[in-house]
Structure formats: structure tokens, C-alpha cells
Amino acid sequence: MKSQGSSSDKNCKVSFRKKLLIIDSNLEVKDVERLKFLCIGLVPNKKLERSSSASDVFEHLLAEDLLSEGDSFFLAELLYIIRQKKLLQYLNYTKEEVEQLLPIRISLFRNLLYELSQSIDSENLKEMIFLLNDSLPKTEMTSLSFLALLEKQDKIDEDNLTCLEDLCKVVVPKLLRNIEKYKREKAAQLVTPPVDKEAELLCQGEEELVSQTDIKTFLEALPQEESWQNKHARSNGNRATNGAPSLVSRGMQGASANTLNSETSTKCAPTYRMDRDHRGLCVIVNNHSFISLGDRRGTHKDAEILRGVFQWLGFTVHIYNDVTKVEMEEVLQKQKCNPAHADGDCFVFCILTHGEYGAVYSSDEALIPIREITSHFTALQCPGLAEKPKLFFIQACQGEKIQPSKSIEADALNPEQAPTSLQDSIPVEADFLLGLATVPGYVSFRHVEEGSWYIQSLCNHLKVLVPRREDILSILTAVNDDVSRRVDKQGTKKQMPQPAFTLRKKLVFPVPLDALSL
Fold first, then answer.
1. Contacts for 505 with CB less than 8 Å, ≥ 6 apart
2. For burial by CB atoms within 10 Å, which of 82, 107, 183, 431 has the most?
3. Catalytic residue among 232, 354, 376, 461
4. Alpha-carbon torsion, ordered 77, 83, 86, 89, to 10 deg
């Protein structure tokens, strides 16, 4: 039976590649250029530059886990955009299906540039090149290569279109409407992303630890992309998809997180690649001492167990103690540019400190928004981590302080300060996971000798469930269940962790060969 299954899988792959060759034979040189342009930011530029055919591009998409026989929608999206809709049949999609699910991967910015390129004719292009003549190489360019060069020279990006607007005002004023439309859509995407209604339904009918408003606010931290991916997953039937459940784990007292996980997980979902040269980097920021705030006694226990567990999982671990605001920026810049990301599978960033709603404190008591930290590792800022899972675990309070007992302390400060929105906590793109020790508006607890409830539970569940090949979301749901059942000695203090994520696939860590000794 095993050999028959292997043979069937091989036949399936061969059949899929045959379809890709048929698609390749129907595409012209200009179509290949369009495909390469649309893949900027998703496939390394050097690989795209060396691609001379559509099949070369397909190989890169396969290597980057953007395309597979089980999930070909990204290629369908590309073909639809470049107006090769007749070729969708080879991927078992109809034009109507693709229209219903768009957009999935192509960003608003990339789509804008592509639309503009199709409206810039040869005369318009000559005039634009003339206006920027001193800063451009003396080579022949198409409208696509011209826009790609402006982007490469940092003359334009998703937040800065001034140069492009100036060119359009002089040469093609009508295109200013496209740019204004893009700005409106981008603002709407950031401010009012859609809320997953299925998650809201799961939150009804039980005693709440947080309000429905708090849960909705936290759900809105998930980007618009994720909701489209889930729509793709639901509409695609038995087709394997890259959409992970867009759910924030339950924030209700006594709720069974395992029930939530069993109801929402997709057993046949694809998994992130975990077979590169090394697992990746794990950064731990461990703040114990502050200028005027209380010492975080017991935090060394969290740092020690995090280091042990992630080294066991194959990560290279770096610990930074008592990090100031300036030092934090240095750490972020160093890790953002770390060349080791290129050969790694994953990235983990842990922060142990005091905090407030949507932000954490440096050791010199500067309040740093979580968004400011995570935004350093987007595909644009850190290409080596593009399409790879990026996990952030935060042991810090997200709300008002509760009077602690003798052996239990809270990582909360300044409850009177107005909270910031958690919409800004996760970058607006896929492959991020943010694990907070507590839900919005509540404290997290740390034992002065044994460490924090959340980090200790997280590490203990990783030790137990990774060997059982459980995925990270299943593990975090088990952590929720465990922490939610804990109380202090007086039975008056409880805690509920809160993950939010835009993961597209299951994240399953390979089982380490060596036993863990802590």
C-alpha cells in the first residue's frame, strides 16, 4: 500500500507539471515579464532576474511553497491578472471562481503598479523617462521594468507615491484616479478589515472573561488577506488550500480551547516547509530591571526555559537582557538584516517585560508598540523571511493592574493610560503569529520563583506536543486551556492568553532526535 501511494503521488506531480508546461507554451515573452513583475516581493529578485521563461517562474513558485499540485490558486490569480483566463482550465478553475476569491496574494500596491503599466503606452513611457533622465540607466525599458526600477531605487513604495503622482500629473493625468483609488482601498484595509463571523458565533452563549467588543477589536488585528484566504478555503471544497483558520482562541472563562481547535482545524491543510539548512533564529528580550518600575522577579526562569526548548527544536537562540529603547532598535535592525534568515525555516521573537495595551516597555521605560516590533520582519523589510512563519510571544500585560498576592505579580503598568488599538499589532500580510500572555484589558501573572504562567505553559506544551506532531495552533489552544484553569492561592486571579495570526498553513515543528533535558 505504501509503494502504491508513493506511485500515485509521483503520477500526480508529473500530471501537474505537464499542465504547467502546457500553460508555459501558451504564454509569450511579455506574459513572462508580467508574471515576474507580479511576483516581486514574493520570490527573491535574483531568481526572478534569472528567469527567462514561465516554467522558470513556476519552478521558483514551487520552491517558495507558493504553488503545488494541491494548491494552485496563486498561479490562477496571476493568470487572471495578466488576462490569460482561458488557461485557468488547466488549474481546474473558472473565471467566475477566481473573481469571487480575489485578492489572495497580490498586494494592493503591486496590483496598482501593474494596472498603471497597462495604461502607460510607449509615448507616455518616453516622456516619463525623459523627466527622470539623469537618474535612470541608458537602457531600453518597458512600462513594467520602468516601474520596477523606480521601486528598486526607492523612489516609490506602498506608502510613498509622490514621484509617480508627479509623473502622472504631467504625462497621464487620468492615472491619478487609479492612485487615489489605491489610497482609499489601502486606508480601508488598514482601518476596517472584515471580521470573521464564524469566530464571533463561537464566542456566544458562554460566560465571558472579556467583552464582545474586546474580542472584535482583537479580531480586527488580522489583515484583510486572511479573511479572503478563508473564503478561498471554504469555497474551494475538497481542494487543498493555503488558508489557516482565521480564529482568535476563546476569551471566555472556563472555555475548552481543545474543543475550539477540533472544530476549526483543517487536517488536510498544507504545512510550512521545515527542511532547510537550519530551523531558524530565536530572539529573547528579557527585561528584569527598570529605572523606576518594579523588578520582574522570576523572569530568568522564563528566559532559561525558552532557550532550552527552542534550542531543542533546532533554533539558534540569542538572549538580550535589560534592553533599552535604543538597544531594542539595534536588536531589531540586526535581526532584520541577519543573512541567516535565508537558510532558515522560521523566526521566533520572545519578549519578557512589563507592558500595556498593544505595547511593551523597554528597560529604560520607553513604551514600544508591538506593531513597531513586528513590522521590521515583513517581506518588504526582511526578504529572507518572506513566506516563512514569524512567531512573536509576548509575556507582558495588556491592561489594568490587579492587586497581586505575595507570590504572584502582574506585568501591568499605568492602568489609567488610554489604550492603543491592537489593530496595529500585526503587519498587514500573511505568515505572522502573535501570542500574547493575556487578552486585551487584562493582566498576566508571573510567579517570582517559578516564572510566568504563560511562558511556562507554552514551553511545557511544546515539549509534550511537538513529539506528537501537533501544529502550533493546536499547541497554543492547549496552552489557553491550561492557563485559563489556573488560579492563585486565593482563587481570585485568572488569566487567558490570546493568539492572533495570519498563518496560511499548518506549522508543525519536526520532532527533535535528542531528548530534552532542562
1. 65, 242, 244, 269, 270, 271, 272
2. 431
3. 354
4. 0
Side chain identity, residue 301: K
DSSP 73-97: HHHHHHHHHTT-GGGGGGGT--HHH
Instruction: Confirm if 290 and 321 have CB atoms less than 8 A apart.
Output: no
Helix (H, G, I), strand (E, B) or coil at 218: helix
How open is the CA angle 455-461-463, to the nearest 5 degrees?
105
Q: Give buried/exposed letters for 331-352 (b at 16+ CB in 10 A, else e).
A: bbeebbebeebeebbbbbbbbb
CA nearest to 445, candidates 491, 402, 500: 402
CB–CB of 271/508 below 8 Å? yes
pLDDT at 357 over 90: no
Cell of 426: 500585526
Query: What residues does 317 pair with on adjacent strands?
Result: 282
β-pair type (451-452, 445-447): antiparallel
Interior angle at CA 188, CA 185 and CA 194, nearest 5: 115
Q: Please identify which of the residues 282, 382, 397, 459 carries the catalytic annotation.
A: 397
CB proximity list for 58: less than 8 A, separation 6 or greater: 20, 23, 24, 67, 75
Residue 397 bears catalytic tag? yes
Beta strand pairing call for 390-395 and 344-352: parallel
- Cα distance between residue 511 and residue 496, in whole Å: 28
What confidence tens digit (pLDDT) does each residue in 241-280 have? 333 333 333 332 333 333 333 333 434 568 999 988 889 9
- Say what the alpha-carbon torsion angle 262, 267, 471, 236 is, to the nearest 10 degrees: -100
Which helix (H) or strand (E) covers residue 147, if one does?
helix 143-152
pLDDT in tens, 437-465: 654 444 444 344 556 778 888 998 999 99
Distance CA 355, CA 367 (A): 8
Closest CA to 508 of 342, 308, 279, 343: 279
CA 341 to chain centre: 15
Average pLDDT, the chain: 75
Q: What is the dihedral of CA 184, 190, 195, 196, to 10 degrees?
A: 110
For residue 476, the one-letter residue type is L
Question: How many angstroms separate the CA atoms of 262 and 281, rounded?
Answer: 30
pLDDT score, position 419: 42
Q: Which of 103, 102, 86 is nearest to 94 (CA)?
A: 86
Question: Does residue 321 register a pLDDT over 50?
Answer: yes
